[in-house]
Write a structure and sequence with these properties.
This protein is an alpha/beta fold. The protein has helices at about 10-30, 35-60, 85-95, 115-120, 125-140, 155-165, 185, 190-195, 210-215; strands at about 75-80, 100-110, 145-150, 170-175, 200-205. The chain has 2 domains: about 10-60; about 75-215, 3-Layer(aba) Sandwich (Rossmann fold), CATH 3.40.50. The chain has a 5-stranded parallel beta sheet with strand order 3-2-1-4-5, with helices on both faces. The chain is elongated.
Length: about 220
């Protein structure tokens, strides 16, 4: 959505425009009530049309990610947090890496409580993310998939973007909790990633509770 207050100049123009909008309606309404209604409809319609055009104009183009590995190498970027412990994710990574000389990078965002984030107390979140990441790498190694990992930004989309810039993947795997229990799905992480990057993106749903029940 367009933010009219990105600078002082734009904020000033926004205030002037708002004053002119309401002033025009008020003056027209004083002259004639129906004239006021007509002016309101016309001005509001014009604003809606402008907003829709501006929104279309600001939609980011899908970025083509250049292949950075060898010709026969498949680079797979995995972005997950708590669901790195899920068997479903390990299975999909193994399937995608099979048959290729693959290079797998696992990025685990260091998610943190809002209060700790604002107080810059992120050590605990990063330590927890690194522990989960190392557990996944060990499991992948035991199944024959060589992978490396790193702790990413607390914002999953920023962590994904950083990983794309540095790694240049041929494919992206995003793992989330099921719908209704996933903050990433509620905030549109998967959808926005598909809109932004022109590479295949696989969404893996990991139900950790169901996997625990099956294990028992």
């Amino acid at each position: 959505m367009i933010n009219p207050l990105r600078s002082e100049a734009e904020a000033f123009r926004f205030v002037l425009g708002s004053l002119a909008y309401f002033a025009a309606i008020a003056v027209a309404a004083v002259i004639n009530r129906w004239l006021g209604v007509a002016v309101f409809v016309v001005l509001t319609s014009a604003l809606v049309v402008w907003w829709l055009r501006a929104r279309r104009a600001e939609q980011p183009r899908r970025e083509t990610v250049p292949h950075r590995g060898a010709a026969d190498e498949r680079r797979i970027l995995v972005v997950a947090n708590e669901t790195v412990r899920g068997e479903a994710l390990r299975t999909v990574i193994g399937e995608r890496a099979a048959g290729y000389r693959s290079d797998v990078l696992v990025v685990v965002p260091a998610l943190n409580a809002r209060l700790r984030h604002w107080t810059s107390d992120e050590d605990g979140a990063r330590a927890a993310a690194e522990e989960r990441m190392r557990a996944l790498l060990a499991e992948l190694g035991r199944s024959g998939v060589a992978a490396r990992g790193e702790v990413g930004d607390s914002d999953p989309l920023q962590a994904l973007e950083d990983g794309v810039r540095k790694f240049g993947p041929d494919e992206i795997i995003i793992s989330t909790h099921p719908e209704g229990r996933s903050h990433w799905l509620e905030s549109g992480v998967v959808t926005r990633a598909r809109e932004r990057f022109a590479v295949p993106i696989t969404h893996v749903v990991v139900d950790l509770e169901a996997e625990r029940r099956q294990t028992r």
